[in-house]
Structure formats: C-alpha cells, structure tokens
Fold:
Amino acid sequence: MNPTINQKKKIGGWLFFLFSIMLFCAQMGYFFLQSRYNVEYTDNRIFYLINILILISLVLTIFLLFTVTKKWKMIIVSILVVLTLLLVGLMINHSKRINHIISISSDFKNVLVIKENRATGQASYYRTYYGIFARPKEMFPYRTIGEFKVKWLEKDIVAVTYKDSIHSIHQYIGTYGDRNEGSYSYVGPSIHGQWQTESVRLISDSEGITIDNNGEVEIYDWKNIVQFGTIAVVLMKNNEATLMNNNEAEWTIALNENFNSNSNAAIPPSGEITLYKATMDIIEPLTLVYEGEADAQPKQ
Amino acid sequence: MKKTILGAAFIIIISITIATFFFEQHPELTGPELNQRNEKLDTQEVKPPQPIPLQPIYIEDSIGYSLQNNQLQITYNKGMDWIVVPVDKVQLFAGEYNGNEQELIEKSYILTQNRATFLFSEGDRIKLIYSLNQGKTWEHTVVREEYLPIRFRKVAFLNESFGYVIISGDRTMSQEWNAVYLTKDGGKQWKETTHSNVTRLIYDGGFVDENTGFLSFGILNPVEPDLHVTQDGGNSWSPTVVTIPEKYHQIFVMAETPFKEEEHLAVHINQGPNGDYQGGKVKGKFISNDNGKTWEFSMEVLPNESDY
Structure:
C-alpha cells in the first residue's frame, strides 16, 4: 500500500476518533447541564443525531486505523445499521410525542423555541443559548390544540398564534430585545396618541386602546391588555360567543425597531408600530404611523 | 493501542445506549416550574386561577350549584366534584334583575338528578342550556330569537318531554310583554303559544298537564286575583272565575301556580306584597272541579302548610 495514503488514513482515523470523543463528552456534558440547570437541546432530536454521528465516527475510526477482516467488517456495519435504525426509530417516536416549533429570525440572531406535549396540550416557551441549547422560560397559560402559526413581526418580536382546547384564539409573543436601553417600560402608555394606516386607526389613551378597523370600533381597557417583554402587547376580548367566559386574543401591537417613545422629553413618540390581527389565517401585519395626540380628534 | 481504542469505542457505545435509555425516560416536557424554583411564582401567575373550594347552594340532597369564581358550576356529590356550566354568569342575570347575583333567579333553572336546565339571554336571543346526563354534555336551544330585557322568567318540565318557559319583559310603567313557550321533545324545540292578550305584569304561571296551563297577573297593589287559563295547550286563553268569599275580598289577591290534587285542581291565593291579614302569610286555598275555569274557596292555609 502507498505509504502516504496509509498515513492519510491514520490521520483521518485519529481525527474521527477525536471527533467521536468530543461528541461523546458533549453528550455527557449535556446530561449534566440538563439535570443541573434544566438545559435542553433546542430540538430534542439533536440528541439522537449526535448519537448517530458518534457511532458513524467510531466505525470510521476502526476502519481507518486497523485492518479489519471482511467478516468483522460485516459484523461492525450490521451493528451500525441496527443501532442507527433504532435511534432513528426513537427519534420519530419522540417527534410524535413532542411537537417542536422552531423558527429563526431573519437576521439569524434569535430563535423561537416552543415544545408542545401533543398528548396533554401543554406547551413551553424556551429561551435559547448559543443556538442549540434552550431552557424552558414559561408554560403557556392555555392548553394548546392543533397548529401554531409563527410570524416574526420584527427581528426581535415573534407572534405565535394558536388555539386552546375550546378553540379560542390566543397569541403568545416572544420578545428578544427592548426599545429603551434596557429600562422597563409599559408599551400602552409609551404609544399614547393616535396611530394610523390606510384602513385602521389605533388610539391609546388613559382609558385603554381603541382600534377602529374600517369603521368597526373596539375598545380594550387596560385590564384586557397583556404585555410581553417590553415591546409588545396583546389585546384580549372576553368572547361571549364561546359561552365559556373565555378570553380570546384579538390583536398584537409590537413596537418597531425605529420606534422611540421619547418618554423623557415632552415630544411625541416617533417611528412606527405594528398591528397584527390574531387569526389562524395567513395575513400580513399592518404598519402604523404616529398621527398626533389622542385628543386631537374625537373618537369615532 | 488497538485495545485502548476498541475499549474506548466499546465504552462509548455502551454509554450512549444507557444515555439514550435515560433520555427516553426523561419527562415528556419540562416546564419551568418543575425544576426552577425561582421562576415558580412567575409561572403560577400565568396559569388560570385555581378554584377556591366552592360552597354549594343545595337544591336537593347532594345536588347543588355555586356562582363563585364568577361562573356557574354544579355538583352532584355534595361539592366533591364540580361541573362548570358553559354559560356566562352575566347572561343568567340579564334583563330586569336587581339581586346580588349570589343565587340563581328562582324558577329560572331546573337542577335534578335527570335534568339540569338554565334559562339565559345571549345577545339578542333567549336561550336554554340543558344537560340530561349530569353535565357530561350540554345542549343549547333558542327559546326566543328576539330579545327584550326580560323580567319574569320561569322554566319547568312536567315530564321528560313536555316543558314550558314563561318570560316577560320590556316593562313600561305597569305594562309589559309576556310569552309562553312549550316544548314536546324535551327542550330541543320551543313553540310560542297564542298570546293571552293581557299586558299586566305577570306574577306566576305554569302548566298542570300538556293542555292545561295558567298565567297569574298583577303584582302591584292587586285587589283580586287575575288568573287566566288555557285548556288547549296554549291555543286560547281565557280569564278564570275565582269566587272569593266576602270575608276575603281584597285579602287573597295573587294567585300562585295551580296544581293537581286528587281529582281536582287547587291553587293557593296569597295576600300580595301588602297583605296583613293574620300576619300576611296566610293563603287561601281554592279548588276547581272544571279543570281550572272556576274556583271555589276551600280553606285557609298557614304558611308551613302551603309548601307543595
């Protein structure tokens, strides 16, 4: 055999061995993190994929470093195939139990992770670390059913629309930033005034938030407005149609990146806000611009 | 060297097999409240409020209801288990009602072993919600499409299939609209009967069988009972003749719902809101032998005898 090829094979073999040891250490480290800090993989199926990679690397290590007889080659490949199939099977089984909702923002900086237990309808919202690790942050307040609709309203605001067990619509907003250099702020008062787009007008005043959608006026008082992070709110409505005294989400208001509340100065807010209707239909969010003081024009 | 590498490979394979086993055993979904104590409070806030122990208002034996937590729930086992009635509490008290909403409006519901039924207003309709299997499933039916602010409301069933609803509303001064609805299929469909042409304020009403029903009017300073009867299932109504002995003139003035007694019908006529005869609680019992057309005085009944 050509000595250079033999040498390359040796180096390759060692690299694969090193690679498998690294992955193995990562996997064991993961177990430590999981039990100690409640850290999980962003997608649980990564666990099975890493196992498969370890197995393949080990087999390649053996094939590249040692001379293996045909009989042993057969045995090793068979074991590899059986174990891989087993892991793939477990991975599929896992996907059936846990529904992963994973979405990456357009600038690849933020990752939305929601894991839903399909059997119980319990869903958790996760914060991610370094992309592949995540920790549960919040359980969804309602049991979920069916599909989740994910829409990034901004690079750091994602709206998740879903239905609960009695088919009421809810929105959960993942937020990954702020608009006021880190200080805590309330979204409602910071957008005090009138906001307008072609068909929709939004008024935020001391009573609450009024939305005039093509002449259809709905008033949401502050107790029906739920804030997420410091940059988004969901407007809720008590829906009598369901008879269950159940709250349903109607709109999400998100602060755009160019929004500035100017809260410390006596000048009106500037920039734009986004209004997004809570519906399972595919719709585009609306961008609203500042029009003036809330009292400048009478409410319709 | 070969032994070391093969040994390491062997250990790794065994380890990841065990790891996979544990991974499979791991809880389906970890919530923040499971392991992170410091975030426990946060998560409790977003959970729907846990119900505080409910105190039943008993209807019979172990059957009761509660309006606590701003919703209607019923129990069939003395409050051990509760079933939420899928109706908005506000809708149960819609219209002309000025109580404290701690108890259901008398006669506006039925709660027995075999039937739970509640009358309510939803939007511009007057509806019934009922369950025949102790709250496992609920049916909604519309009694009246057009809503007027209702005042008097009563729902009752004589048997599994025949029931009636009496409602009144849209009061102006001492006049109001009223209507009687009948069902013959256990509450699925409701049919309005012919109007009695009386617009006085209704006091009570009810059916004693599928054909014979009564409406009693006059609640503001009545001077004599004003009882109307139908003997053809609500197709026509006519005033009844109540012969009141002179001694009881302007004393027994408000007729309650007649009831069957042995071979005849009987009705209690009470003294109304202003009665003061013998303390005001004594009622007159009247008997009808012609199925409710005419009524003759029978006896005075003391309050504790008048429960029927």
In short: The first strand of chain A starts at residue 40 and ends at 41. Helices of chain A lie at 3-37, 46-65, 70-97, 187-190.
